[in-house]
Amino acid sequence: MTAPGILELVLVLIVTVACAVPVGNYLATVMEGGRSILSPVLAPVERGLYALSGVDPARGMSWRGYTAALLLMNALHFALLYAILRLQFYLPFNPQATAGMPPSLAFNTAASFVTNTNWQAYTPESGISNGAQMLGLTVHNFLSAATGIAVAVAVMRALASGGLQVLGNFWTDLTRATLYILLPLGCVFTVLLMASGVPDTLHGFAAVTTLEGARQTIAIGPVAFQEAIKELGTNGGGFFNANSAHPFENPTALTCALETFMLLLIPFALPVAFGRITREPGQGRALLAAMVGILAIGVFCSYAAEAAGNPILHRLGVDQVSGNLEGKEVRFGTALTALLNVGATGTSTGAVAGAAESFMPLGGLVSLFLMQLGEVTPGGIGSGFYFIIVFALLSVFVAGLMVGRTPEYLGKKVQAREIKLAMLALLILTLWILCGAGLSLVLPAGLAAISAAGPHGLTEMLYAWTSATQNNGSAFAGITATTPLLAYGQAFAMLFGRFAVLVPVLAIAGSLGAKPKLGMNAGTFPTTGLLFVGLLAGVIVILGGLQFLPADALGPIAEHYVLHAGTTY
Asked: Which residue from 126, 161, 398, 435 has the fewest beta carbons nearer than 10 Å?
């Protein structure tokens, strides 16, 4: 590792955390219905939307009503997006004259974008029209992100007050998250990306003359706006197959740092908003410290693995002064590539700047392991926050067992019902990842989808199911995900990974919200200090990650030792 590389990583993380504080305070103000700097312009628009849709923003919903509205909206939009993808040939803004997607691929893609996964089993620049990009994918980049914010805020309300019978209004939360947060930030970052060289046009192709004098046709389109919400909403679905490694999505080292900033900004801001809404800033700082600490360790571990280079090439006498550059863009270098890749898998973005399959085994393990932790460091927009709350409840439960007291979190007693629901949410993810990967590795259809033998092939399949279930969307490029087994199997993994977790989380919120809020006493375990941050990080690693250690040992860890032994498969 080099001093400039380390400085790049430190600066991006420090600036992002610093900017997350005002953004978090603004988010709390907006979601609680307060007046913000944008209210004079957007408040009339908000009222108009409620009038058109018949929504009463003052009408609260129980956790069951909130959940029903959320599931209904996402079910309808899943069907709408599936129809758009099947019929995209007939949509406007279609210079590519793209045919409709096959049923299995359309089903997989609809599930992917509705769940904020943005797994792309198709080639974007040739497999989908500009009309479907704008009317289908970009719309769902906003809706899926706003859904995550809405649930996170509902959980915050449940912990902020006692005796609550309602968690808020889902339609109001969805509207405010989109109108006041995602749309304005998306417009600002769209302009910044356009100024940096990212195209944003309704033209389908650009004809250019190459250095050799030949003519080449390059796909373009409304890239900048989709890129902005792709990163801000931790979506990850690229306009191009190369995603954030493509020069039209990520032209320079500066945009690489900017896009990392964008995908981390709102996930880091949510714990700050939590402290503001609960009137206990220390609680938010503790969650933020655990998120930043684990992510920073992951970034530097990945950078160290890539900077060390390939041991086989070292033995051949190849100079690897810049580290392992296979699958990386020279304009980014090893440090920024590691930062964006780890940031994308620490969140649910999946928008990688370098080929994940070309990372050294331990560098790839970092990205895989951060997803296996439950996508909480800092996790997807909203989803990372509400799932780290699940881990916080499990942490105080463990602490309560140690001292023989009923555990409490923010004055709410955590009892058997909440712990059962928390473990249900956690085990759903484990079930789909390990069973899906295991089944795929014993069936001929699954084995045919991987491109490598040995530990690397196992990692390809394990990474694919982890990415789908944890709603990340990145992939080891060697896997073929268009077979019926993976197209439909991973589509259901995405849906269960999102909605089968949301339901118990909202049930926990409903249960905790109805309980009285108790004051602290001498026996209360403090949840604002370094002791709790350490306990929370330990519970995340132990309960979230170590259940995958046997599979990881057979995959990337075994491959690491294979490379050092000078053996290949």
From this structure: 126
How far apart (Å, rounded) are the C-alpha atoms in residues 432 and 262? 30
Those residues with Cβ within 8 angstroms of residue 521's Cβ, 6 or more apart along the chain or in another chain? none
Listing DSSP states for 4-42 in one string gives: HHHHHHHHHHHHHHHHHHHHHHHHHHHHTT---TTHHHH
In this prediction, residue 511 carries a pLDDT of 93
- Position 556 scores a pLDDT of 92
Stretch (H or E) spanning 409: strand 408-409
Query: Do residues 338 and 362 touch, judged by C-beta distance below 8 A?
Result: no
- In 194-334, DSSP assigns E strands to 205-209, 215-219
**Whole-Å CA distances, 411 to 20, 39, 160, 400:** 26, 33, 9, 14
What is the per-residue pLDDT across 427-472, written as a single tens digit (0 to 9) for each?
999 999 999 999 999 999 888 888 888 888 899 999 999 999 999 9
DSSP 240-261: STTGGGSTTT--SHHHHHHHHH
* DSSP string covering 338-385: HHHHHHHHHTT----SS-GGGS-HHHHHHHHHHHHTTSTTTTSTTHHH
Q: Which of 43, 23, 202, 48 is nearest to 129 (CA)?
A: 202
| Environment class of 257 (CB within 10 Å of its CB; exposed 0-12, middle 13-18, buried 19+) | buried
The pair of three-digit structure tokens given for residue 258, joined into one six-digit string: 């900017």
Tokens linked to 252: 């320079």
Task: Give the largest Cα separation in the chain, rounded.
Answer: 79
Beta bridge mates, 409: 412
Question: Would you state the pLDDT for residue 508?
Answer: 95
DSSP designation for 156: H
- Is the distance from CB of 473 to CB of 367 less than 8 angstroms? no
CB–CB of 72/170 below 8 Å?
A: no
How many other C-beta atoms lie within 10 A of the C-beta of residue 95? 15
Q: CA angle, 500 as apex, 383 and 554 as ends, to 5°? A: 80
